[in-house]
Design a protein that fits this description.
The protein is mostly helical. The protein contains 27 helices and no strands. The protein has a domain of 65 residues. Helix 20 runs parallel beside helix 22 and helix 23 packs antiparallel against helix 24. The radius of gyration is 33 Å and the shape is elongated.
Length: 473
Amino acid sequence: MNWGTEDFYEEENEINESLKRYELMLKKGAKIYFDVIQIEYITERFIEEAKFMPALQAVDMGIEMHPTSIALKVRKTNILFNIGEIEQSLKLSNKLLLIEKTNHELHLLKGSALLLLGNKREADQSFQLALEYSIDDKEEVLFNIGFAYEQSGNYKRAIHYMQKVLEINPESESALYEMAFSYEKIDENEKSLAFYNRYLDIDTFSDSAWFNMGIIHTKLNRIEESIEAYEYALAINEDFPNAWFNLGHSNMILTHYEKAIDAFNTYTRYDDANDEVFCLIGECYLKSDNIDEAFNSFQKAITFNKTNAQAYFGVGLTLKLKNELHQSMKYLQKALNYDETNSDYWYVMGEVSSALSYHDLADDSFFEACNLAPDNLPNWLGHAQMLYKKGRVIKAISVLNEAQKHHNNNALINYRLAAYLLESDNEPKAIKHLEKALINDYKNYNYLFETYPEARYSDSVNKLISKYNPINS
């Protein structure tokens, strides 16, 4: 028999007819009578489409026509909750429960409201009453309780209730999806993936599930798997901007810059004024040595956001690479005006200032870079090298001594200190640092000669290198 299908189409026709009459009423500004069921049809369709304010308008009209209808007032309670009028929703649910104390939907709404208002104990009591008074729809009530906990940020409690749903119906797509989502939120990523896989066994063509799996794979540093997941999502739904964005980002991590640029450019079809994505495109071009396109992309980012420090930095960096140093400095200064806490900006400002012989500015810039990111060894080495090239060997040694406080017994620092100390005729100290470097990292001893070639002619240096040569040991 096809009674179920016919019944569905009959109800759908009634909904559509009610909506047409309602829209005609609004257009003409004249009141038309609707029975309770028709108002329920209209509000339900608005709720399904997340049009909560029109739903509220419709239900208020229905209550005016049918002031004794509990069903419409329950519907209003639900709508108030969804538009964020939590206290109003709670007030109305309490009022209605004086009339219908066994209405499980009201207990569910009351519990959800109490939970968002921070009253967890009373919320749980309301949820237990909702379960007690529900007869045929335990699964739906359990799911809604779990979802309420999820919305309040209590993901472990949400998992508890979703698990109960799955005990009733192991193939509940909604529960599987929310279990996966909640496990992701508490960083149990392997469990999250397991539930997404169970969900996808039932609904293979869920673009959102594939997308979320891509995010989790990225968190787990499984970048190739993340790319595969995003590509599945896009094969199902090519109009998925966030999937294009994330696909670009994952390709960028794997240094697949051309593919990353293609994905980011596709994203711009949906959001053509996003300064962040143009910065990422610029970075991809920069790492592909396409300086002109990088420059253009960073400039585009600036046109969309005049306060984007990363975009100004990108332009400054490309101008530095083009050897347009004065222009580069202007953009680097703008980047620092908007973000003076980024050590990379200060470091490049130090390089450009040094190249322009603005010695004090270069020194200050490198100092800021080291101060902001003392764990970044290149900052210290760059600062010391700049000073050394300017003939300020004693100051360079001082910088490296400070660096050792953050990079204890680092071989590169010790090789560099050995070179600078030899340059300043302090061979005893130089030999001590060289020995420390050789003990920790013999294979890079040429670093000493690259910094100070004259060290090749020192008997003490050659003797020490020979001593620690693994071949001689």
